[in-house]
Fold each of these.
Amino acid sequence: MAIKSNLSSVDRYTRGAIGIGVTAFALFNGNIIEDVFIEVLLGIFGVLNLISLLSGWCPVYQVAGISTKERT
């Protein structure tokens, strides 16, 4: 299975903003979330969104057959 870009620019930048926000919250939330497991899950979710920003590829979109990338 080849990795082919399937995210539009808007989708990528939205994922980037979400990834930065969620990752920062997971790292610097203070005492808002006291469960370490939830913090780790949020951190993983944020990092996965940042990876999608950098790669332009979403594995869930590929499995579902979805592409928001503009066709040229």
Note: The CA atoms of residues 14 and 53 lie 8 Å apart.
Amino acid sequence: MDRDPALMEVIRRFGNAAALARQLGLSNQAVSGWEMVPPKYIRAISQATGMHPYRIRPDLYVEGFWNMGLDTVEIAEEMRISEADAERYLHMVLARRKAGTNDNACSAIPPVSKPPLEGQ
């Protein structure tokens, strides 16, 4: 299974997947089956780790900005990521939509302020 790099960072910040599962009140098996963080856990993980929600599931925020009519340059500026990353996340979103598996729709993400500058 290919785990999303953001999920791997979340697990690293908790120490291991078992610690993440305990924090969320889930079984180890539930967390070990994740390829990406499910949207309903973004807020709890953000609060526990200090990670900005867009770092936990950047694809969902790219989708939200795309739905607002921003292009990839504007999305990259808003999220403080590279345009190449914005395009990569947008391709993930569009592939999910095309496959009819966009159950991680951006409507499930918590609203947040602009991302902080790195190192702040």
Note: Helices lie at 5-14, 17-24, 28-32, 42-49, 53-56, 58-67, 72-79, 83-99.
Amino acid sequence: MSKLLQTKEGIIPLTNGDIAVGNVLTAGLLKKQAVKLISTPITWEEFDEYKQMVEDGKAINFMGHPSTATLVGMEANRVSLQADYGSTLIVVQYDGPRLNEGATDLPEGASLLPMKWEIKMPLKVRVKKLLHL
């Protein structure tokens, strides 16, 4: 696992084997433009194991939305990440109307879904790399 230290630009690079737990996955989090994303729903028990990894210093917390952080029992931590091939993002996906500031309960009809996103090198990129193109 990398040291998970911020660069001088304030970005935490995630490399092969690194794990981060947060509340959003956007294209801006990805270091490379060509990636293969593998998404898998996980259970809340599995999410708690990843949360424990954050508490043990084995994963980074990027739970930037304070209300979502509160709802899942984590501290809010707004940081910038750049996920590279081989890293994993554990993302709590919120589905529902906009959360009110300081919300401690989900609005009626809203839900949270923990997802595991694996950042992989696409086959086309792997072949080019093997052929040194």
Note: The beta strands are 11-14, 19-22, 36-41, 60-62, 80-83, 88-95, 111-120.
